[in-house]
Design brief:
Chain B: It is found in: Cell membrane. The structure holds two protein chains of two kinds. Chain A is an all-alpha fold. Helices cover 65% and strands 1% of the residues of chain A. In chain B, the strands form three sheets. A six-stranded mixed sheet of chain B has the order 5-6-7-3-8-9, with helices on both faces. In chain B, strands 11-12-10-13 form a four-stranded antiparallel sheet, covered by helices on one side. The chains are: A mainly alpha, B alpha/beta.
Chain lengths: 267, 332
């Protein structure tokens, strides 16, 4: 039977957030504080210098503020809603994912899409405010804006798969909180959320070029601020697309293996 | 659609690593792990007819949940086969999902942060249930389970009883012909338990759903099931009606009577033994494997003796199942 209405499962996480106004207030506060702190920090760092790591002050501040806003796209509090894969494995409720006519991988994808669209609303709202108050610079041209949007879309796609791999780990190691924390830290560090990768040593930049993380955020933000010129955009976007394909194939294989691990919840 | 369940020689074997004791043992296990096969379910066969409620019973770890997981398509059997409403569940998981509903004890399938009604709406979309049909079924379930008093409450704020009622409704909203209930009333108070039983009875009798129920609550079995399947150590020990099980494991009734003539000679009817004789008071019990049921014994005693008072003590189903579990464990 055709799945005509199943896409509406995408509303799960946004609905959960909308039914928890205190959580939304907390998000607003946290986002505001983070943006102000990051803006102040990078302006302070550039007080005594003109250009560092190929970025001037405005580029660096714009990069850092946009990184904070973009991190909202997948930073919803699923733990409170008992809706992380780890919790579903722990409580045994993961079995229901396998008892519905919507395959678990499609349900997961729809749920993530809903999260990312909801997060996008926050990010766009924050971007509009930051643009209005001059905390970020606008893109330098329509071409930059267009390339940035395409790169950001691919970056979010890569990020979806990276997060999926972390969640799929839960099927194989029930207690993986520590691994998750390490991997999340690595993801944020290597994606350039904490600081633009241009500030890291050469060996670090070379190493991260072989990993998918920089494709999630560093590439689109570097395109936005002009650290990666438009002439290099095609190559960078091709690399992002390659990561999407590679991770799609890998996660598809892991889903098949994961289905055999559902029994791990016992009972 | 026929809601029958057919199980033939169903077997599921798990391979686990044996951990040797002590530090040296742990190291040896690490270098040279010893793998052993454990049969969680072994050669189990039974049928459930459409519109029948079957209780799948057994002590903890008997293999009940593993059996249900194979019938719901979550697990693939090592050997044997199963068909649920004509579908092999582990081969056609998605098609099977449309035919079945399931509740696993206190594990909720509802979304913790959403009001119950929103969870129902998401399930409606996932199962592609037409809106009018969904509304009609919700109304029906509300009348039976009193859902509307809490369905606008977020799941995290529901009591256990409210949550299980919501889960039952959620499992049946897409109108499945077959329902699997794995200890659905565990931890619930008697009032809610009775409400759930009433709901299940209604769904079996009025809607013709096939229900496979596992429970440790013998009152539930007595009120709902006509037939039970008993498994232990993964093997099927017994498949029969409650009456057959009582006859096999529960012949512990006693008939107590006060005779009108305290000096009368007491020769018990066939199949009945005289357990005590104290003046006019006599106590009879079953004698051998062909002993009559307690009601037959009562009739036989009244017909044979002139009595001024008579009463019966019958082992309840819990005692019967205890005896069955003990014997099953001994046989295994």
């Amino acid at each position: 039977m055709a799945m005509v209405h199943a896409w509406r499962a995408a509303r799960v996480t946004p609905l959960g957030e909308l039914h928890a106004p205190p959580r939304m207030t907390a998000v607003l506060l946290r986002l505001s504080v983070q943006v102000v702190l990051v803006w102040s920090l990078w302006r302070g760092l550039y007080a005594q210098t003109g250009t560092t790591a190929g970025l001037d002050r405005d580029q660096a501040v714009t990069y850092a503020v946009l990184a904070v806003l973009a991190s909202r796209l997948r930073e919803l509090d699923q733990y409170t809603g008992r809706d992380t894969v780890l919790q579903h494995m722990h409580f045994g409720t993961i079995v229901y994912w396998y008892l519905r006519p919507l395959p678990p991988q499609r349900y997961y994808a729809l749920r993530a899409l809903g999260e990312q669209l909801y997060g996008l609303a926050w990010a766009l709202g924050g971007y509009a405010v930051c643009l209005a108050v001059g905390a970020v610079e606008p893109p330098r041209s329509a071409a930059v804006a267009g390339v940035f949007l395409l790169s950001m879309l691919l970056g979010q796609w890569v990020l979806y798969y990276v997060m999926l791999v972390l969640d799929q780990l839960c099927f194989f190691t029930l207690r993986n909180n520590a691994a998750m924390l390490i991997l999340l830290f690595a993801q944020n560090l290597l994606a350039g959320v904490y600081a633009p990768l241009w500030f890291f040593p050469d060996w670090f930049i070379t190493m991260s070029a072989f990993l998918p993380f920089q494709a999630t955020l560093s590439v689109p933000l570097s395109l936005y601020v002009g650290r990666i010129p438009l002439s290099d955009a095609a190559l960078q976007i091709a690399v992002q697309a390659a990561w999407v394909v590679a991770l799609a194939l890998f996660t598809r294989w892991v889903w098949r293996r994961a289905a055999q691990r559902v029994i791990s919840q016992g009972g | 659609m026929s809601g029958s369940i057919e199980v033939r020689g169903l077997t599921r074997t798990f391979h686990t690593t044996v951990r040797r004791p002590g530090l040296a043992g742990a190291l040896r296990s690490l270098v040279n792990p010893e793998r052993v096969a454990k049969h969680a379910v072994l050669d189990v066969s039974f049928d459930v007819a459409p519109g029948e409620l079957l209780a799948l019973l057994g002590p903890n770890g008997a293999g009940k949940s593993t059996t249900i997981k194979m019938l719901t398509g979550i697990l693939t059997p090592t050997a044997g086969e199963a068909r649920v409403a004509g579908v092999v569940p582990y081969q056609e998981r998605e098609r099977n999902a449309r035919n079945i509903g399931a509740v696993f004890g206190q594990r909720t399938q509802l979304w913790w942060d959403l009001p119950v009604r929103e969870s129902f709406a998401i399930l409606r979309d996932i199962y592609e249930v037409p809106k009018a049909e969904h509304a009609a079924r919700l109304k029906e379930f509300d009348e039976l389970l009193d859902l509307s008093s809490f369905w606008d409450t977020r799941v995290r704020h529901l009591s256990l009883g409210q949550r299980v009622r919501s889960d039952l409704a959620a499992a049946l909203l897409h109108d499945p012909p077959v329902v699997f209930l794995d200890e659905p009333t565990i931890g619930m108070d008697v009032v809610v338990k009775e409400q759930v039983r009433e709901f299940l009875r209604n769904q079996v009798e009025e809607r013709g759903r096939t229900v496979l129920l596992t429970t440790h609550d013998m009152t539930e079995v007595e009120r709902l099931a006509e037939r039970v399947v008993l498994i232990n150590h993964g093997r099927l020990m017994l498949d029969g009606t409650l009456e057959e099980i009582r006859r096999k494991f529960g012949s512990t009734w006693q008939v107590r009577a006060t005779l009108a003539d305290p000096h009368a000679e007491v020769v018990p009817p066939p199949g009945i033994a005289l357990l005590r004789h104290d003046g006019p008071r006599v106590v009879f019990g079953p004698d051998g494997p062909d002993a009559p049921t307690v009601h037959q014994a009562l009739k036989a005693v009244i017909e044979r003796f002139e009595v001024t008072d008579i009463g019966i003590d019958e082992a309840d189903l819990e005692d019967v199942m205890r005896a069955a579990y003990v014997q099953a464990t001994g046989d295994a």
